[in-house]
Design a protein that fits this description.
The chain is of the alpha/beta class. It has seven helices and eleven strands. The termini are far apart. The structure holds adenosine-5'-triphosphate (ATP). Keywords: ATP-binding, Nucleotide-binding.
Amino acid sequence: MTRTPRDLTVMFQGRLQAFRCDLAFTVPGHGVTALTGPSGCGKTTILRAIAGLHRFDNGFCALGDEVWQKPGVFVPPHRRSVGYVFQEPSLLPHLSVRQNLLYGARARAGMPTLEEITSVLGLAGLLHRRPTGLSGGEQQRVAIGRALLAAPAFLLLDEPVSALDRDRKNTVVSFLKRLPIPILYVSHDSDEILEISSEIIRFVDGFVIRAGRSGPDATRICQQPEDRSGHWGERRHG
Ligand SMILES: Nc1ncnc2c1ncn2[C@@H]1O[C@H](COP(=O)(O)OP(=O)(O)OP(=O)(O)O)[C@@H](O)[C@H]1O
């Protein structure tokens, strides 16, 4: 069945503990959109709020016409068709790698199979191991595989290749780029962003300061952490 691309619309305002934000942005319903910004600016917090794991009092979040949050409505995380790879892979310790991969697995046209994922992510030799004792990079690859096999409508990836060596990183990035689902991809690495993304959204301190096409500008955008005056500026408060 052909799926119609659906944009993700996000608007969050308010506080979560010490973190304050006031931002609005749209993630296109196709391709990879990079979310970047200096450490502590709120990238993980926003991804978690999109997944329904955090809640801003004043928020709107919708995938196409499927509204996940608006005043009076808050769809719980397990009812949102979103996959999430955390910075810290949260694998189920009592299950084998194979069982972790297949946890919540669903078939969806165009999405890779267990065999493809096992091969691309180099997991064949690990399938019978338990997560305890796997290296950080191995755990990260299992977490990516599990998220893909669940075949979500939208994928949130929080620095998903940070623990991988360069060769594996390149393989995984080009694999993710070819997936038929939209991805919001957090990274600090300008080369990685340039390689994988077609759009970039940049935060500083809970505000969107730039949103636009990726491309040769990506390096400059990623390397100006304090610049709040970008010509793509979508900053909402001074
Ligand atoms: N559980 C928490 N309790 C208190 N403050 C928190 C908590 N989680 C995050 N924060 C704060 O919220 C802000 C945003 O954190 P977040 O992890 O979203 O940033 P980030 O942009 O993802 O950072 P990094 O790039 O370093 O991963 C930071 O100032 C952080 O200290």
